[in-house]
Amino acid sequence: MKKFYLSSTDKKIGGVCGGIAEYFNIDSLLVRIVTFALIWCGTVGIWVYLLAWGLAPSDNKISK
């Protein structure tokens, strides 16, 4: 099963958008544009981003 992790390589602030892009295998710029639009249109976007940033594990803590 695939899990969501914060990206340690493709991050600008917290790695949330990079992690979402890696999870869905899409371009991180597209995820950042959608995230910015959600934040710009209302406060729900910022709360979702902060919640994901605080609760999701970082991918650099995974032992491979």
UniProtKB/TrEMBL annotation:
It is found in: Cell membrane. It comes from the Bacteria. The chain crosses the membrane at residues 33-56. It is a single-pass membrane protein. Keywords: Cell membrane, Membrane, Transmembrane, Transmembrane helix. It holds the Pfam family PspC. Residues 2-58 form the Phage shock protein PspC N-terminal domain. PANTHER family: PHAGE SHOCK PROTEIN C. This is PspC domain-containing protein. It comes from Xylanibacter caecicola.
